[in-house]
Specification:
About 20% of the residues lie in helices and about 30% in strands. It is α+β, with helices and mostly antiparallel strands. Strand 11 and strand 12 form a beta hairpin. The structure holds flavin mononucleotide. Flavin mononucleotide (FMN) binds next to helix 1, helix 2 and strand 4.
Length: about 375
């Protein structure tokens, strides 16, 4: 761990402000799954970017350090920097072409998002970061990758190409963020805006929805896809009450009143499944049916035999409320003039000492 900086940041949640208690939980997809920010910085710009990033996302941070200390990459007209990059360019598949770095943890197990923050050198990825990715990029095949590049002024397409060469199998969270000497003073805004555009993997527990029928509320776990992300965004404006009807002896279904992004697959829906049908209808299953649907999630905690009763199988005009809170009625009952420092659980229970999690404060969802 000599030169290795491994910091565990404590702030929670994409798009939360530094003051977590005041932050509104606006991310459409909930908390980030376990995330690693890996960076190299020669003159400190990328370190500043990482400091800003980790004010907004919960992540472990790994700094790459050269094995050989005190080198001046910019000396003699950037001679050494150029030499390192030329060696890589000449033999990109040979480990010997890459400058040595200090030891880093070998395993990336558990990380689902990786944010790479690197300087640009001669329109390419800085050589030391290339070393790290040459050795660890192949382990990132199942991860979502985001890239931030810092340069003085040069465009970053060459760095993006290097990243794609070194991490060929990964899924990209979105477009890379380019910080340069022109926009560096607006880094805070650029970072927060960019984070909103990135499709990071989220932790499953934050993707819950609650279904209330006739005063009984059940939790549903949501799939992580564009349809559920759009649905969660709608529900962040408040609970949604629908009128659904039983059909076919296996489901209750009806219009949402708006469309969601479709990703239809031919599936056999099982009891408890929640799917999107034809882009704008929701179906809740107590039986089974094969059709082309976009999966939305699954009703949790109910057995197959309990589902027909909860879903009022056989009835028409079933009032169904979808919500991000476990008790939408209780939330509405929170007094509007609640004291500024009072927190409520999502179930509407007042709490003086909120632990980690999502709470209601001053009428807004906040993350602690
Ligand atoms: C060896 C070397 C080569 C560089 N080449 C370029 C370049 O071609 N274009 C550019 O805009 N900036 C170039 N830079 C400047 C860096 O990309 C820029 O200062 C960056 O913000 C540095 O990040 P850091 O402070 O985290 O090391 C170079 C810097 C070094 C050390």
């Amino acid at each position: 761990m000599k030169r290795l900086l491994f910091l565990l940041t404590t702030l929670m949640g994409l798009s939360c402000s530094h003051d977590a208690a005041e932050a509104t939980a606006q991310t459409p997809t909930g908390h980030l799954a376990k995330t690693l920010v890996v960076y190299y910085s020669y003159t400190g710009d990328c370190r500043d970017i990482v400091t800003e990033l980790t004010r907004h996302i919960e992540a472990d941070v790994l700094e790459i350090q050269p094995a050989e200390k005190g080198l001046k990459y910019e000396a003699n007209g950037y001679a050494l920097g150029t030499q390192l990059l030329n060696a890589i360019k000449a033999n990109p598949d040979d480990a010997a072409s890459y400058p040595a770095i200090d030891p880093v943890p070998t395993s990336l197990d558990g990380y689902r998002n990786i944010v790479i923050v690197t300087p640009l050198w001669w329109s390419q990825m800085a050589a030391l970061m290339q070393t790290y990715l040459f050795h660890h990029g192949p382990q990132m095949a199942d991860k979502t990758i985001a890239l931030v590049v810092s340069s003085a002024s040069s465009g970053i397409s060459g760095v993006v190409a290097d990243c794609k060469r070194l991490v060929p199998e990964a899924t990209w969270a979105g477009d890379a963020l380019w910080i340069n000497n022109q926009n560096r003073s607006r880094m805070g805004t650029l970072v927060t805006d960019w984070l909103q555009t990135q499709h990071f993997q989220t932790s499953q527990e934050s993707l819950d929805m609650y279904i209330t029928i006739d005063r009984q509320t059940q939790r549903a776990t949501l799939a992580d896809n564009p349809a559920t992300q759009a649905l969660v965004e709608k529900l962040q404006d408040g609970p949604l009450t629908l009128t659904l009807s039983a059909s076919g002896g296996f489901e209750i279904w009806g219009p949402l009143g708006f469309s969601l992004p479709t990703h239809d697959q031919h599936v056999t829906a099982q009891p408890g499944d929640i799917v999107l049908y034809n882009g704008s209808n929701i179906c809740l299953f107590y039986g089974s049916n094969s059709w082309s649907y976009t999966p939305l999630g699954k009703i949790a905690d109910l057995s197959e035999s309990e589902l027909p009763t909860f879903l009022k199988a056989g009835e028409t005009h079933i009032r169904v409320t979808l919500s991000l809170t476990s008790d939408a009625t209780a939330l509405r009952g929170i007094p509007a003039d609640q004291p500024r420092d009072t927190f409520y659980t999502l179930g509407g229970r007042r709490t003086e000492h909120p632990a980690n999690g999502v709470f209601i404060k001053s009428g807004k969802k906040v993350i602690r």
